[in-house]
Amino acid sequence: MPGNAPPDTLFSNRLTNAHRAFPGGMIVIALVALLVLVLLAFILSETPGRTLYFFFVGPFRNVFSFGNMLNSMVPLILGGLGVSIAMQTGNLNLGGEGQIYSGAFVATVTAIALAPLGYFGGLVAILAGTFFAGTVAAVSGFCKVRWDANELITSFLLSHALILIVNYLVNGPFLDPETNLQATRRIPDGFRMSLILRPSNLSTALLVALSAVIAAHVFLKNTKLGYEFRMAGANETFARYGGINTKRNTVLAMFLSGAMYGLAGGMMIFGTFHRTIREFSAGLGWDGLATALVAGFYPPALIPSGFFFAWISSGARIAMQNSDITFEIAAVVQAVILFLVTSMVLRNLFLRRKGRQK
Predict the structure, then answer these.
(1) What interhelical angle do 73-88 and 205-222 show, nearest 10?
(2) Before 48, cis peptide (omega within 30)?
(3) DSSP 3-state assignment of 47?
(4) Does 1.10.3470 match the CATH number of domain 2-357?
(5) Helix (H, G, I), strand (E, B), or coil: what is residue 245?
(6) What is the pTM of this model?
(7) How far is it, in rounded angstroms, from Cα 327 to Cα 319?
(8) 114-132 per-position pLDDT tens digit
(9) What is the spatial distance between Cα 65 and Cα 345, in angstroms, rounded to a whole number?
Protein backbone atom coordinates (compact mmCIF):
# COMPACT_ATOMS: atom_id res chain seq x y z
CA MET A 1 0.00 0.00 0.00
CA PRO A 2 2.70 2.58 0.79
CA GLY A 3 3.86 2.33 -2.79
CA ASN A 4 0.61 3.98 -3.88
CA ALA A 5 1.29 7.10 -1.82
CA PRO A 6 2.40 10.29 -3.60
CA PRO A 7 6.18 10.73 -3.97
CA ASP A 8 6.26 13.77 -1.70
CA THR A 9 4.43 11.87 1.04
CA LEU A 10 6.85 8.97 0.73
CA PHE A 11 9.77 11.39 1.07
CA SER A 12 8.24 12.96 4.19
CA ASN A 13 7.62 9.55 5.76
CA ARG A 14 11.16 8.42 5.01
CA LEU A 15 12.57 11.62 6.45
CA THR A 16 10.63 11.10 9.66
CA ASN A 17 11.55 7.43 9.84
CA ALA A 18 15.22 8.31 9.43
CA HIS A 19 15.09 10.24 12.68
CA ARG A 20 13.32 7.34 14.42
CA ALA A 21 15.89 4.84 13.17
CA PHE A 22 18.83 6.89 14.43
CA PRO A 23 17.69 8.63 17.64
CA GLY A 24 21.22 9.79 18.50
CA GLY A 25 21.99 10.83 14.96
CA MET A 26 21.04 14.45 15.46
CA ILE A 27 23.52 14.85 18.30
CA VAL A 28 26.25 13.35 16.15
CA ILE A 29 25.33 15.69 13.30
CA ALA A 30 25.51 18.72 15.58
CA LEU A 31 28.96 17.66 16.82
CA VAL A 32 30.21 17.07 13.27
CA ALA A 33 28.91 20.52 12.23
CA LEU A 34 30.78 22.14 15.13
CA LEU A 35 33.93 20.24 14.14
CA VAL A 36 33.61 21.63 10.61
CA LEU A 37 33.26 25.10 12.11
CA VAL A 38 36.48 24.65 14.09
CA LEU A 39 38.31 23.47 10.97
CA LEU A 40 37.04 26.44 8.99
CA ALA A 41 38.24 28.80 11.70
CA PHE A 42 41.77 27.39 11.45
CA ILE A 43 41.67 27.54 7.65
CA LEU A 44 40.08 30.95 7.10
CA SER A 45 41.12 32.96 10.15
CA GLU A 46 44.56 34.36 10.91
CA THR A 47 43.68 34.28 14.61
CA PRO A 48 41.69 31.04 15.01
CA GLY A 49 41.94 31.02 18.80
CA ARG A 50 40.38 34.48 19.06
CA THR A 51 37.75 33.57 16.48
CA LEU A 52 36.70 30.41 18.27
CA TYR A 53 36.65 32.16 21.64
CA PHE A 54 34.23 34.81 20.47
CA PHE A 55 32.21 32.23 18.55
CA PHE A 56 31.67 29.81 21.43
CA VAL A 57 31.90 32.14 24.44
CA GLY A 58 30.78 35.46 22.97
CA PRO A 59 27.00 34.87 23.29
CA PHE A 60 27.43 34.17 27.04
CA ARG A 61 29.78 37.03 27.94
CA ASN A 62 27.12 39.50 29.08
CA VAL A 63 23.38 39.92 29.54
CA PHE A 64 23.00 41.84 26.28
CA SER A 65 24.51 39.11 24.10
CA PHE A 66 22.87 36.27 26.01
CA GLY A 67 19.43 37.91 25.93
CA ASN A 68 19.64 38.62 22.21
CA MET A 69 20.66 35.01 21.57
CA LEU A 70 17.61 33.76 23.46
CA ASN A 71 15.46 36.26 21.61
CA SER A 72 16.60 34.87 18.25
CA MET A 73 15.27 31.48 19.37
CA VAL A 74 11.65 32.68 19.07
CA PRO A 75 11.24 32.49 15.26
CA LEU A 76 13.37 29.34 15.15
CA ILE A 77 11.16 27.50 17.64
CA LEU A 78 7.88 28.68 16.11
CA GLY A 79 9.12 28.10 12.56
CA GLY A 80 10.36 24.64 13.50
CA LEU A 81 7.00 23.97 15.10
CA GLY A 82 5.29 24.92 11.84
CA VAL A 83 7.41 22.45 9.89
CA SER A 84 6.91 19.74 12.51
CA ILE A 85 3.12 20.01 12.54
CA ALA A 86 2.93 19.68 8.77
CA MET A 87 5.31 16.73 8.83
CA GLN A 88 3.02 14.90 11.25
CA THR A 89 0.64 14.36 8.33
CA GLY A 90 3.40 13.66 5.81
CA ASN A 91 3.46 17.18 4.36
CA LEU A 92 6.31 19.65 4.07
CA ASN A 93 5.71 23.41 4.16
CA LEU A 94 8.47 25.27 2.32
CA GLY A 95 6.72 28.64 2.40
CA GLY A 96 7.88 29.67 5.86
CA GLU A 97 9.76 32.79 4.85
CA GLY A 98 6.83 34.34 3.00
CA GLN A 99 4.42 33.28 5.73
CA ILE A 100 6.52 34.91 8.46
CA TYR A 101 6.90 38.07 6.38
CA SER A 102 3.25 38.38 5.36
CA GLY A 103 2.01 37.44 8.84
CA ALA A 104 4.22 40.12 10.35
CA PHE A 105 2.98 42.71 7.84
CA VAL A 106 -0.68 41.91 8.44
CA ALA A 107 -0.11 42.05 12.21
CA THR A 108 1.65 45.41 11.84
CA VAL A 109 -0.97 47.19 9.76
CA THR A 110 -3.79 45.70 11.84
CA ALA A 111 -2.14 46.92 15.05
CA ILE A 112 -1.77 50.42 13.62
CA ALA A 113 -5.41 50.43 12.49
CA LEU A 114 -6.69 49.12 15.84
CA ALA A 115 -4.57 51.36 18.04
CA PRO A 116 -7.64 52.90 19.78
CA LEU A 117 -8.69 49.45 21.07
CA GLY A 118 -5.68 49.08 23.36
CA TYR A 119 -4.51 45.61 24.38
CA PHE A 120 -7.49 44.00 22.69
CA GLY A 121 -6.43 45.57 19.40
CA GLY A 122 -2.93 44.14 19.82
CA LEU A 123 -4.30 40.65 20.42
CA VAL A 124 -6.54 40.92 17.37
CA ALA A 125 -3.56 42.07 15.30
CA ILE A 126 -1.45 39.05 16.30
CA LEU A 127 -4.35 36.70 15.57
CA ALA A 128 -4.92 38.40 12.20
CA GLY A 129 -1.32 37.85 11.14
CA THR A 130 -1.41 34.27 12.40
CA PHE A 131 -4.68 33.52 10.60
CA PHE A 132 -3.51 35.10 7.34
CA ALA A 133 -0.30 33.07 7.21
CA GLY A 134 -2.22 29.92 8.11
CA THR A 135 -4.69 30.55 5.30
CA VAL A 136 -1.86 30.97 2.80
CA ALA A 137 -0.39 27.61 3.81
CA ALA A 138 -3.84 26.01 3.75
CA VAL A 139 -4.13 26.99 0.08
CA SER A 140 -1.20 24.67 -0.66
CA GLY A 141 -2.89 21.91 1.32
CA PHE A 142 -6.14 22.44 -0.58
CA CYS A 143 -4.33 22.34 -3.95
CA LYS A 144 -2.77 19.04 -2.92
CA VAL A 145 -6.00 17.30 -1.95
CA ARG A 146 -8.05 18.84 -4.77
CA TRP A 147 -5.66 18.66 -7.73
CA ASP A 148 -2.79 16.53 -6.35
CA ALA A 149 -0.44 19.52 -6.59
CA ASN A 150 2.85 19.03 -4.75
CA GLU A 151 2.70 21.16 -1.58
CA LEU A 152 6.49 21.66 -1.59
CA ILE A 153 6.23 23.52 -4.90
CA THR A 154 3.00 25.42 -4.26
CA SER A 155 4.02 26.57 -0.76
CA PHE A 156 7.40 27.75 -2.04
CA LEU A 157 5.92 29.62 -5.02
CA LEU A 158 3.20 31.26 -2.94
CA SER A 159 5.84 32.31 -0.43
CA HIS A 160 7.97 33.93 -3.12
CA ALA A 161 4.96 35.78 -4.53
CA LEU A 162 3.99 37.02 -1.06
CA ILE A 163 7.46 38.39 -0.46
CA LEU A 164 7.24 40.47 -3.64
CA ILE A 165 3.76 41.74 -2.75
CA VAL A 166 4.73 42.71 0.79
CA ASN A 167 7.87 44.41 -0.52
CA TYR A 168 5.69 46.57 -2.76
CA LEU A 169 3.34 47.43 0.10
CA VAL A 170 6.17 48.26 2.49
CA ASN A 171 7.93 50.45 -0.07
CA GLY A 172 4.72 52.00 -1.37
CA PRO A 173 1.37 52.57 0.33
CA PHE A 174 2.56 51.73 3.86
CA LEU A 175 6.03 53.29 3.79
CA ASP A 176 6.82 55.45 6.80
CA PRO A 177 7.87 58.87 5.43
CA GLU A 178 9.52 59.82 8.72
CA THR A 179 12.34 57.28 8.54
CA ASN A 180 15.15 56.43 6.14
CA LEU A 181 14.36 52.74 6.53
CA GLN A 182 12.31 50.83 4.01
CA ALA A 183 9.70 50.06 6.64
CA THR A 184 6.16 50.69 7.80
CA ARG A 185 5.18 52.98 10.66
CA ARG A 186 5.73 51.67 14.18
CA ILE A 187 3.06 49.84 16.10
CA PRO A 188 1.69 51.70 19.17
CA ASP A 189 4.01 51.63 22.17
CA GLY A 190 1.33 49.98 24.28
CA PHE A 191 1.33 46.94 21.99
CA ARG A 192 4.99 46.11 22.53
CA MET A 193 5.78 43.00 24.52
CA SER A 194 7.52 43.40 27.87
CA LEU A 195 11.30 43.02 27.95
CA ILE A 196 12.80 40.34 30.20
CA LEU A 197 16.58 40.85 30.16
CA ARG A 198 17.42 44.50 29.67
CA PRO A 199 19.24 45.93 27.80
CA SER A 200 18.79 43.00 25.39
CA ASN A 201 15.78 42.60 23.09
CA LEU A 202 14.54 39.46 24.86
CA SER A 203 10.82 39.81 25.51
CA THR A 204 7.87 37.73 26.65
CA ALA A 205 7.66 36.50 23.04
CA LEU A 206 9.95 33.68 24.19
CA LEU A 207 7.31 32.60 26.71
CA VAL A 208 4.74 32.54 23.91
CA ALA A 209 7.01 30.30 21.82
CA LEU A 210 7.59 27.90 24.72
CA SER A 211 3.85 27.80 25.44
CA ALA A 212 3.17 26.99 21.77
CA VAL A 213 5.57 24.04 21.96
CA ILE A 214 3.80 22.66 25.03
CA ALA A 215 0.37 23.13 23.45
CA ALA A 216 1.46 21.43 20.20
CA HIS A 217 2.95 18.49 22.09
CA VAL A 218 -0.22 18.00 24.13
CA PHE A 219 -2.34 18.32 20.98
CA LEU A 220 -0.36 15.74 19.01
CA LYS A 221 -0.04 13.22 21.85
CA ASN A 222 -3.32 13.52 23.76
CA THR A 223 -6.08 14.44 21.31
CA LYS A 224 -8.01 12.46 18.73
CA LEU A 225 -7.12 14.87 15.95
CA GLY A 226 -3.45 14.74 16.90
CA TYR A 227 -3.60 10.95 16.71
CA GLU A 228 -5.13 11.20 13.25
CA PHE A 229 -2.32 13.53 12.18
CA ARG A 230 0.30 11.05 13.34
CA MET A 231 -1.47 8.10 11.74
CA ALA A 232 -1.65 9.90 8.40
CA GLY A 233 2.05 10.73 8.63
CA ALA A 234 2.98 7.13 9.40
CA ASN A 235 0.89 5.60 6.60
CA GLU A 236 -1.62 7.75 4.75
CA THR A 237 -3.20 4.84 2.87
CA PHE A 238 -3.76 2.84 6.06
CA ALA A 239 -5.17 5.91 7.82
CA ARG A 240 -7.59 6.54 4.95
CA TYR A 241 -8.84 2.94 5.00
CA GLY A 242 -9.20 3.28 8.77
CA GLY A 243 -11.78 6.03 8.31
CA ILE A 244 -9.54 9.06 8.88
CA ASN A 245 -10.32 12.07 6.71
CA THR A 246 -6.77 12.57 5.46
CA LYS A 247 -7.75 15.29 2.99
CA ARG A 248 -9.29 17.47 5.68
CA ASN A 249 -6.35 16.83 7.98
CA THR A 250 -3.87 17.77 5.25
CA VAL A 251 -5.48 21.19 4.83
CA LEU A 252 -5.79 21.66 8.58
CA ALA A 253 -2.20 20.62 9.26
CA MET A 254 -0.92 23.03 6.61
CA PHE A 255 -3.08 25.79 8.13
CA LEU A 256 -1.60 25.17 11.59
CA SER A 257 1.87 25.04 10.06
CA GLY A 258 1.45 28.43 8.40
CA ALA A 259 -0.19 29.81 11.54
CA MET A 260 2.95 29.02 13.55
CA TYR A 261 5.03 30.87 10.99
CA GLY A 262 2.61 33.79 11.11
CA LEU A 263 2.80 33.80 14.90
CA ALA A 264 6.58 33.91 14.61
CA GLY A 265 6.30 37.00 12.43
CA GLY A 266 3.90 38.64 14.88
CA MET A 267 6.20 37.92 17.82
CA MET A 268 9.13 39.47 15.98
CA ILE A 269 7.12 42.63 15.34
CA PHE A 270 5.57 42.98 18.79
CA GLY A 271 8.70 41.83 20.63
CA THR A 272 11.69 43.14 18.66
CA PHE A 273 11.24 45.27 15.53
CA HIS A 274 7.93 47.06 16.27
CA ARG A 275 7.47 47.63 12.53
CA THR A 276 7.74 45.61 9.33
CA ILE A 277 11.14 46.23 7.76
CA ARG A 278 11.67 45.19 4.16
CA GLU A 279 12.66 41.49 4.01
CA PHE A 280 13.58 41.35 7.70
CA SER A 281 12.62 37.64 7.64
CA ALA A 282 15.10 36.66 4.92
CA GLY A 283 16.35 33.12 5.55
CA LEU A 284 14.13 32.45 8.56
CA GLY A 285 12.01 29.90 6.70
CA TRP A 286 15.04 27.72 6.02
CA ASP A 287 16.33 28.29 9.56
CA GLY A 288 13.02 26.98 10.89
CA LEU A 289 13.30 23.93 8.63
CA ALA A 290 16.83 23.23 9.86
CA THR A 291 15.69 23.58 13.47
CA ALA A 292 12.89 21.08 12.88
CA LEU A 293 15.24 18.63 11.18
CA VAL A 294 17.68 18.63 14.08
CA ALA A 295 14.75 18.22 16.50
CA GLY A 296 13.46 15.24 14.53
CA PHE A 297 10.09 17.02 14.19
CA TYR A 298 9.49 16.34 17.90
CA PRO A 299 8.05 19.56 19.44
CA PRO A 300 9.84 19.46 22.84
CA ALA A 301 13.17 18.92 21.07
CA LEU A 302 12.68 22.22 19.22
CA ILE A 303 13.76 24.08 22.34
CA PRO A 304 17.35 22.71 22.50
CA SER A 305 17.49 22.68 18.69
CA GLY A 306 16.44 26.33 18.54
CA PHE A 307 19.00 27.15 21.21
CA PHE A 308 21.70 25.42 19.16
CA PHE A 309 20.95 27.39 15.99
CA ALA A 310 20.55 30.64 17.91
CA TRP A 311 23.96 30.00 19.47
CA ILE A 312 25.50 29.32 16.04
CA SER A 313 24.06 32.54 14.55
CA SER A 314 24.87 34.72 17.56
CA GLY A 315 28.36 33.28 17.86
CA ALA A 316 29.06 33.88 14.17
CA ARG A 317 27.83 37.46 14.44
CA ILE A 318 29.96 38.22 17.51
CA ALA A 319 33.00 36.50 16.01
CA MET A 320 32.57 38.56 12.84
CA GLN A 321 32.59 41.77 14.93
CA ASN A 322 35.70 40.79 16.87
CA SER A 323 37.80 38.77 14.41
CA ASP A 324 38.51 38.36 10.71
CA ILE A 325 35.81 35.87 9.64
CA THR A 326 32.47 36.62 7.99
CA PHE A 327 28.96 35.81 9.16
CA GLU A 328 28.56 33.31 6.32
CA ILE A 329 30.38 30.72 8.43
CA ALA A 330 27.05 30.15 10.20
CA ALA A 331 25.41 29.42 6.83
CA VAL A 332 28.14 26.87 6.09
CA VAL A 333 27.45 25.09 9.38
CA GLN A 334 23.74 25.01 8.61
CA ALA A 335 24.44 23.63 5.11
CA VAL A 336 26.55 20.86 6.65
CA ILE A 337 23.67 19.96 8.98
CA LEU A 338 21.15 19.83 6.13
CA PHE A 339 23.52 17.70 4.05
CA LEU A 340 24.07 15.24 6.89
CA VAL A 341 20.35 14.97 7.62
CA THR A 342 19.74 14.16 3.97
CA SER A 343 22.47 11.54 4.20
CA MET A 344 20.58 9.96 7.10
CA VAL A 345 17.55 9.56 4.84
CA LEU A 346 19.65 7.89 2.15
CA ARG A 347 21.26 5.62 4.74
CA ASN A 348 17.84 4.67 6.08
CA LEU A 349 16.65 3.72 2.59
CA PHE A 350 19.82 1.71 1.96
CA LEU A 351 19.40 -0.27 5.18
CA ARG A 352 15.76 -0.98 4.35
CA ARG A 353 16.65 -2.34 0.92
CA LYS A 354 19.46 -4.40 2.40
CA GLY A 355 17.07 -5.84 4.98
CA ARG A 356 14.59 -6.82 2.25
CA GLN A 357 17.31 -8.61 0.29
CA LYS A 358 18.05 -10.76 3.34
Answers:
(1) 20
(2) no
(3) coil
(4) yes
(5) coil
(6) 0.89
(7) 8
(8) 999 988 999 999 999 999 9
(9) 36
